[in-house]
Every structure is written in C-alpha cells, then in structure tokens.
Amino acid sequence: EPEVTQTPSHQVTQMGQEVILRCVPISNHLYFYWYRQILGQKVEFLVSFYNNEISEKSEIFDDQFSVERPDGSNFTLKIRSTKLEDSAMYFCASDAAGYNQPQHFGDGTRLSIL
Amino acid sequence: GENVEQHPSTLSVQEGDSAVIKCTYSDSASNYFPWYKQELGKRPQLIIDIRSNVGEKKDQRIAVTLNKTAKHFSLHITETQPEDSAVYFCAVPRGSTLGRLYFGRGTQLTVWP
C-alpha cells in the first residue's frame, strides 16, 4: 500500500536556525497538508497546498513558515527562525481529491529546538 | 472554525469488553467524519470514516455511528484486544473547506488483558 514518507524522523536544531522538513506524498494525490502535534496534545492543522499554491493556512502558520513543492514528488515545510515552542511532531498528509477524502499521514518528523 | 469535542479523554476496559468514544461538532455543513488511531510515537492511522448519507458503518470489530441532527458521531470497538490500546482521534472538516481537518483532543484507550 502506498505511503506518505517523511524525512528526517528526528531533527534537533538550535533556536534561531532554519529547518526544512521533507515529505513525499502518495504519488497520485493532489492535496497536501502539514499538521503539528505538541507532545500529549491534539493534532493541529498548519497549511494545505494544491496546484502549487497554499489553499488555506491556520493562525499558527505565520511568516516564519513556508511550504514548497520543489519538484514533482517532494513537499517541504520550512521554518525560517525556529523558536522553542516550535518543538513538536510535524506530520505531512495527502489525499486524492481534497474535499471529504481520506487523508493519509506520514510517520512524522520530531522537531526538537534547543 | 469547527469546534470538536471528544469524550472521554481516557478509557480503560477489560479485554473482550466494548469501548465507545463520542465526538460532537459544531458545523452542520460538515459531512465527512474520520477516526484515527495513533500508537505511541507513530502516525495517525485512518481506521474508519463515514459520510453523512449513512447513519452507521461497520468494519469487523469497529463501527462508527452518526447522528447529523444532534451533530455527534461515535466510534464503537467490540471484543477489544490489548493491541487496540492507543490514542483515538476523531476529526471533522469545516464545511466546504478543502480538506482541513479539525481534530478532537483524543481518547487514550487502554485494554487490560
């Protein structure tokens, strides 16, 4: 069964540094998402992406965040200047048609900001 | 945005018993309701979903029921097994918004052998 893959599995970064999280969505999927989960809390939406542009972003997704689809397979989340409160699990997800279709999640990247 | 309430936050059952987790939502336009299972340190995994044109859907030991009038839906697990132990999340899209899911706070289910 095809899967969403994410790299790295764990990223440790100094506060203020830039970090890029990478995702390869399922190949025939068209809608891509980033969510985050602070330890012990619920999953929170960050951003959705379709047709090479952002469809929606949450209040968490401020100017420090950006997303990109640099080629036909990768989908990246960049945090420009990391803060301690950015420490969380970041999940990438994708689905085939956006509206009311099952979203499939990757294994996540655990981001630790020191 | 969508307001999703999930109860209970923790649930302990004996192996073989049934478990029920309930979610309520606020946007009456929502018409797709997935449930995710998340084992410790792993991805949320879709286990069952339901669309608003049906009231119940079953897949082996798990089922989801939907009451659109009351705006709540429930996950039912029968004949629970220790490997069912995990955090379960309900999720709801906001009306016509493309794909964005609002998650409940999760239910830690523990099944004792």
Give structural notes.
- The complex is a heterodimer of chains A (114) and B (113).
- With 114 residues, chain A is mainly beta.
- Chain A contains no helices and 11 strands.
- In chain A, the strands form 2 sheets. In chain A, strands 2, 4, 5, 6, 9, 10 and 11 form a 7-stranded mixed β-sheet that branches. A 4-stranded antiparallel β-sheet of chain A has the order 1-3-8-7, with no helix packed on it.
- Chain A is globular, with a radius of gyration of 13 Å.
- Chain B is an all-beta fold and 113 residues long.
- In chain B, strands 2, 4, 5, 9, 10 and 11 form a 6-stranded mixed β-sheet that branches. Chain B has a 5-stranded antiparallel β-sheet with strand order 1-3-8-7-6, with no helix packed on it.
- In chain B, a hairpin with a 2-residue loop joins strand 6 and strand 7.
- The mean pLDDT of chain B is 92.
